[in-house]
C-alpha cells in the first residue's frame, strides 16, 4: 500500500499531511475494509478545504485534534488525507516505516511550484539536485555573501524603527531578501522588485482551490508563476552571454557539467525560495520571541556574539 505524504512547508503548522492517491486507501477493494483514522471528509471534491483555509489554520487543527485526537482524516485541496501531529506518529512516517511512504504534494501544488523541483523527484535526478543545492550553501560558498546579508539585516532593523510590526511578516521579508541574494548574487538588485511582485502573487494563491479559470486566485498564481519563469529565463540567458563564474545557487544550477534545462532550473529556483522562506522566517520569529521573554539568554547570546566580533 503506497501512502503519500507531504510536509506543509507553506505554514508553520506542525502537522504532517498524509495525502493518498484517490484510488488507494479510500477506494481500492483490498484496503476498503481497513480501518481509517476518525474524522470527516466533507463535501465531494471540496472536502474540508474551506474550513481549513477560511480561518487561521490553527483553529481547524485545534478543533479537529480536540475532537479526534492527534491523527485524523480529512479532505483538502481535492485530496483525501490523514493529518498526524504526535511525535510518535511523525517518527513512524519519517523514520521507522519511511519505506511505506513517498513524499509528494497535491498535483495542483506540484504545478504551481514546478513539476521538476527537488521535492517531487526521486533517484539520480534527486541526488543531483541535492548536491547542487548543498554546494551553494557550504560555508566556503556563503562566505562572500556574509557582508551583504549583514547589510540586509541592518536595513531591515532600520526599517522597523518606531513601527508596530508583525514579526513573522517582517522575517518573511528579510528571508526573502536573503534568499534572492543567495540565489542571484549581485544580479539580485536588478530583478528584485519583479521577482517579489510575482512571488507574492504566487504565494497568495498557493493554498487556493485548484480551479484554473480566469479570475480565481489559482489562475492568478499560475500566471505569476509563468512570469517568474520568464524572468528567470531572462537572467539565465544574460548569464550565458557573459560567461562569468557565479558562486550563487543559480550559478550552481547552471554549471556546464550539470546539464539542467532552463525549465528544471526555474522549477528548482522557485522551489528553493519556497522551501527557505516561511521555514526560516518561522524559526527567526520563535528565536525573537524567546530572546524577548528571557533577558538572561539574550544577554548570553549578545556576549557570545560580541566575543566573536573581537576574535
Ligand atoms: C529552519 C528552517 C527550515 C526548516 C524547518 C526546513 C524544513 C524542511 C523539511 C521538513 C523538509 C522536508 C524533508 C523531507 O521531505 O524529508 C525540507 C526539505 C527541503 N528544504 Fe528545508 N527547511 C528549512 C530551511 C531551508 C532553507 C533555508 C533552504 C534553502 C536552501 C531549504 C531547502 C530545502 C530543500 C531543497 C528541501 C528538499 C530536500 C530534498 O528533497 O532532498 N530549507 N525542509
Ligand atoms: C487561466 O484560465 C484560463 C481559462 O481556463 C486558461 O486558458 C489559462 O491558461 C489560465 N492561466 C494560466 C496561467 O494557467
UniProtKB/TrEMBL annotation:
GO biological process: abscisic acid metabolic process; sterol metabolic process
Keywords: Iron, Membrane, Metal-binding, Transmembrane, Transmembrane helix
Top-rank lineage group of the source organism: Eukaryota
Membrane-traversing stretches: 6-26
GO molecular function: (+)-abscisic acid 8'-hydroxylase activity; heme binding; iron ion binding
Keyword Iron assigned: yes
Keyword Transferase carried by entry: no
InterPro entries: Cyt_P450, Cyt_P450_sf
Name of the protein in its database record: Abscisic acid 8'-hydroxylase 1-like
